[in-house]
């Protein structure tokens, strides 16, 4: 479901709350800063991934996640090195 479809649906208020909750979470966790775009750089766009989850008590909950569209980056131009800290399974077992 697209953002436009969600916001024009009958559940639009629930979708708005889910989106607001995601933004509040990003601000609380300090995961982003608003900065000026450098003239010689491109911007990685983002989009919302909207899902409806079924809870254990058989009620539904609207979820919204803001995700970066990193596939638009080009190695050596938009980035030089990436790092994602991931624990090995052996470390978790310890």
- How many angstroms separate the termini? 41 Å
Rg for CA atoms? 18 Å
Principal-axis shape equals extended
Number of helices: 3
Number of self-contained structural domains: 1
Number of strands: 2
The main β sheet shows up as: 2 strands, antiparallel
* Biggest sheet: strand arrangement: 1-2
Derived from helix and strand composition plus strand pairing, the structural class reads: alpha+beta
Order of helices and strands: HHEEH
- Share of β-strand residues: 15-25%
Average of per-residue pLDDT values: 83
> What percent of the residues sit in helical stretches (DSSP H or I)?
25-40%
Low-pLDDT segments, ≥5 res: none
Which properties best describe this structure?
3 helices; extended; about 20% strand; alpha+beta; about 90 residues; two-stranded antiparallel sheet; single chain
Task: Please give a quick description of this structure.
This protein is an alpha+beta fold and 94 residues long.
Describe the secondary-structure layout.
Blueprint: H1 3-7, H2 12-28, E1 46-54, E2 60-68, H3 89-93
Antiparallel strand pairs: 1-2
What do you see in this structure?
With 94 residues, the chain is of the alpha+beta class. It has one domain. It is 29% helix and 19% strand. It has three helices and two strands; from the N terminus they run ααββα. A two-stranded antiparallel ribbon has the order 1-2. Strand 1 and strand 2 (60-68) form a beta hairpin. The longest helix has 17 residues, at 12-28. The radius of gyration is 18 Å and the shape is extended. The N and C termini lie far apart (41 Å). The mean pLDDT is 83. InterPro entries: RVT_2. It comes from Loxostege sticticalis. Residues 29-94 form the Reverse transcriptase Ty1/copia-type domain. It holds the Pfam family RVT_2. This is Reverse transcriptase Ty1/copia-type domain-containing protein.
